[in-house]
Design a protein that fits this description.
single chain, 343 residues
């Protein structure tokens, strides 16, 4: 499952979930908490659900992860996104060498469509067509140098989800052969959503699903209370259980992005990993952590990234414009961390 290391987003997930589930009995039925964990998308997943154990659940989850890998993994040379990026359209069709399942194309196409919508609604602060910029940032960080201005301008010239259209059978195609995609800022949230659909199909009414810090909660835990999650204090080298804020989560998703780790310094100046796809350059503001709530974890994931690009004031305005979104922002003011809930 390590083929999607690139989907680690280049950022630290500020959210660590707390499983609260204890066995208890009622006169009518026993409440049985079940827990399962594993590896996915270059990180880990943890799932807790209430009910009888689902047979072959590990196999089912692995199949879901494999399908998303085949659609979205830039580490798999024969994945749909790799074919799209390399313009190898012959691999989009079934052959003796490569065979794609319908679900793979569904995942890839859904990501393209959703990303287009969110890119427009965030005025380009979220843009998966910025893959070239992230590659340049990683090169600069590795060598502890500034990003190259010429490369930045070249990347910006081939960027833009408006360069994607669809062929007669619905396959996304691009008008600029040098444009490339990377769904590292939305894929984990999307996997959470897909796993949630699986548990809904299994008629599980109470569960908490977490992938790399992004999560969705439905119903209640084994004690009959809402699931509880904690937002990690956004400071370098913070203990993941050092919570800045703890809150209940029920029938919604949460995703968190931060800009307080995974940076490097040049001449004493901090170069953060949050990339503004509009300017092509790293950006750091007083917003240290953005936790977004939405019914879809993929949507929350993308907006969390966009908010870190926009900064506190623009993020507050963005969230207030959309009644389906709410947020908890942690920001620095006069050298102190403060929290604000916005809806």
């Amino acid at each position: 499952m390590n083929c999607m290391q690139i989907l680690k987003k280049g950022r630290i997930f500020c959210l660590f979930f707390v499983l609260i589930g204890v066995s208890s009995c009622t006169k009518d039925q026993e409440i049985i908490p079940q827990q399962i964990s594993g590896n996915a998308l270059g990180t880990t997943y943890h799932i807790s659900y209430i009910g009888n154990e689902i047979k072959h659940i590990e196999v089912a989850i692995d199949s879901i992860i494999d399908a998303i890998n085949h659609g979205l993994s830039t580490y798999q040379h024969n994945s749909l996104i790799s074919c799209f990026n390399s313009n190898n359209t012959s691999l989009w069709e079934d052959s003796n060498e490569y065979r794609y399942y319908e679900s793979d194309l569904k995942h890839f196409t859904f990501m393209v469509n959703l990303s287009k919508q969110i890119s427009v609604s965030t005025d380009g602060a979220f843009d998966p067509s910025s893959a070239c910029l992230f590659e340049e940032y990683n090169r600069a960080k590795k060598n502890q140098i500034k990003m190259d201005d010429q490369i930045i301008q070249s990347c910006l010239g081939h960027q833009g989800l408006d360069k994607i259209r669809y062929d007669s059978v619905g396959y996304p195609i691009k008008s600029d052969s040098l444009m490339q995609l990377n769904f590292n800022a939305i894929a984990k949230g999307y996997l959470v959503d897909v796993l949630g659909v699986y548990f809904d199909h299994k008629k599980i009414e109470n569960y908490l699903i977490e992938v790399g810090g992004e999560m969705i909660a439905k119903g209640e835990n084994g004690s009959g209370l809402p699931w509880t999650v904690g937002i990690t204090t956004p400071i370098p080298n913070a203990d993941p259980t050092q919570f800045f804020h703890v809150l209940p989560l029920k029938n919604k998703a949460i995703a968190t992005s931060g800009n307080y780790q995974n940076f490097y310094k040049i001449d004493g100046l901090v170069v953060g990993h949050t990339m503004d796809p509009r300017s092509g350059r790293p950006v750091m503001t007083n917003l240290r952590s953005a936790s977004i709530f939405h019914k879809s974890c993929a949507v929350a994931d993308a907006y969390a990234t966009a908010c870190m690009t926009l900064g506190l004031e623009e993020s507050i305005a963005l969230i207030k414009q959309d009644t389906s979104l709410s947020a908890y922002f942690i920001f620095e003011k006069e050298h102190e961390l403060m929290g604000q809930f916005v809806e």
